[in-house]
């Protein structure tokens, strides 16, 4: 006769499996790291030189260079929005968390797309050539491009991945708001300390409250 195998012990209600909680912590840490790193890369790379060229002037050529902020300010602005959304993910719950996570993903996608669209920097160089030469028809020649626009796009993609993680795994992440919410139960009032007979001021205070200071003596 074979012995019956013991029945599996169910987990208590409200207690998740260790593997699930560990996976939630890993996805949370990954989203925080990717989002913060991506925003830092976008803000750094958008302040670097994206394109260089030269404007023809009498007697030679005038060198020109434009930074990412001169080409387009959208990636840096969207990176700031992404940072705000990354923090807000932990301040909201349920549908609000999904909306903020979607905003985080869209911010990253927008930063990447706008960086790639402005990678050539030709329009910004032409505008700078017209400004430096005083000739509205002046254009920049001998254009060269750097890798910073593509670094900006990579930073935007990191923010996008952080937003997708928040959309996929954010339901199991903790929320900051729960730590500061009150449970609604009334607080127990502390009974006033018994007056000290050796301290006259305590006796007077007890009399002001309508108490008999000699009842416990």
Question: Overview of this structure, please?
Answer:
By secondary structure, this protein is mainly alpha-helical. The protein is built from eight helices and three strands. A three-stranded antiparallel β-sheet has the order 2-1-3. Strand 1 and strand 2 form a beta hairpin. Helix 4 packs antiparallel against helix 6. The longest helix is centred in the N-terminal third of the chain and has 28 residues. It starts with 17 loop residues before the first helix and ends in a 9-residue tail after the last helix. About 7% of the residues have low confidence. This is TIGR02234 family membrane protein. It comes from Streptomyces albidochromogenes. Keywords: Membrane, Transmembrane, Transmembrane helix.
Summary keywords:
3 strands; 217 residues; three-stranded antiparallel sheet; mainly alpha; 8 helices
């Amino acid at each position: 006769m074979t012995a019956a195998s013991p029945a599996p012990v169910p987990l208590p209600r409200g207690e998740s499996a260790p593997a699930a909680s560990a996976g939630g912590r890993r996805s949370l840490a990954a989203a925080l790291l990717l989002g913060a790193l991506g925003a830092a890369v976008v803000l750094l790379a958008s302040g670097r030189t994206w394109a260089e060229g030269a404007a023809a002037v009498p007697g030679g050529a005038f060198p020109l260079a434009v930074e990412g902020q001169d080409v387009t300010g959208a990636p840096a602005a969207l990176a700031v929005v992404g940072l705000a959304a990354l923090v807000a993910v932990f301040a909201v719950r349920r549908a609000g968390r999904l909306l903020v996570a979607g905003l985080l993903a869209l911010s990253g996608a927008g930063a990447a797309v706008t960086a790639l669209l402005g990678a050539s920097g030709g329009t910004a160089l032409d505008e700078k050539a017209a400004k430096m030469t005083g000739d509205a028809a002046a254009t920049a020649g001998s254009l060269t491009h750097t890798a910073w626009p593509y670094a900006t796009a990579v930073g935007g993609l990191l923010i996008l991945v952080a937003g997708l993680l928040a959309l996929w795994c954010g339901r199991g992440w903790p929320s900051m708001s729960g730590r500061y919410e009150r449970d609604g139960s009334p607080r127990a009032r502390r009974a006033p300390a018994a007056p000290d007979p050796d301290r006259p001021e305590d006796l007077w205070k007890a009399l002001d409250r309508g108490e008999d200071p000699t009842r416990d003596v």
